[in-house]
Design brief:
Elements lengths: L4 E8 L6 H10 L12 E10 L2 E10 L9 H5 L4 E7 L9 H13 L9 E6 L11 H10 L4 E4 L8 H16 L3
C-alpha cells in the first residue's frame, strides 16, 4: 500500500493508564488484558485514510514509569502529534500532568517538535465508569489549561472511541502539514 505521509504519534502519561492497551486495541481491534509494563518505548505502525489519502502512523507508546521519564524528550523528537492518557478511575494518574506537558513545552522550545504539536487529552477505562474518580468536567478543564487540541474518553476493553482518537489526531496533524 502506498502512502502519502508518515505521522509520528507519541502516547504518554503515567504508568497503568492504559496507553499500551489503547495502542494494541487500535492496531488489532482486540482487547489484550495481560499486557506487561512497557520498558522504554514500544513502536507500532498502522496505515489509515485521512482526507482521501493513505497515511502511515508511527505510534510510539512511551513508558509511564518515573525511571524512564528522562528518555521522553528523545522519543518526542520529531513527533507530529501526541496523546496524553490518564485513567478515569485513578485521580492520581493526573498528578504528573504538569511534568509531562513541561517536557513537551521544553521540546517545543528546543525546536525538537513543532510549536503547533496537536495533543489529544484521553481518559481511558470508561468501561469502569462506576469507579470513576476523575469527572469529565474536571478533566476537560485540565485539558483546556494544557491547551490540548482535543478531549476524548475511551475504553480499550469495549473499543469505545478508540479509532476516534487516532482519527482526530491524524486529521489535526494533516491540517498542520497542509499548506495554508
Amino acid at each position: 500500500m502506498e502512502y502519502s505521509s508518515t505521522f509520528k504519534i507519541v502516547i504518554f502519561g503515567d504508568s497503568g493508564t492504559g496507553k499500551t492497551t489503547l495502542a494494541h486495541r487500535f492496531l488489532t481491534n482486540l482487547f489484550k488484558q495481560d499486557i506487561s509494563i512497557t520498558l522504554g518505548v514500544e513502536f507500532m505502525l498502522k496505515d489509515v485514510e485521512v482526507n482521501g489519502e493513505i497515511v502511515k502512523l508511527q505510534i510510539w507508546d512511551f513508558a509511564g514509569e518515573e525511571r524512564f521519564r528522562f528518555l521522553f524528550p528523545l522519543y518526542l523528537k520529531g513527533a507530529n502529534g501526541a496523546i496524553f492518557m490518564y485513567d478515569i478511575t485513578n485521580y492520581g494518574s493526573l498528578v504528573h500532568v504538569d511534568n509531562w506537558f513541561a517536557i513537551v513545552e521544553d521540546a517545543i522550545a528546543k525546536k525538537d517538535v513543532d510549536n503547533e504539536l496537536p495533543i489529544i487529552f484521553v481518559g481511558g477505562k470508561v468501561d469502569l465508569n462506576h469507579l470513576k474518580e476523575v469527572s469529565t468536567k474536571k478533566a476537560m478543564q485540565i485539558a483546556k489549561s494544557m491547551e490540548a487540541k482535543g478531549f476524548i474518553e475511551c475504553s480499550s476493553k469495549t473499543g469505545e472511541n478508540v479509532s476516534k482518537i487516532f482519527d482526530l489526531l491524524a486529521r489535526l496533524i494533516f491540517k498542520n502539514k497542509s499548506p495554508s
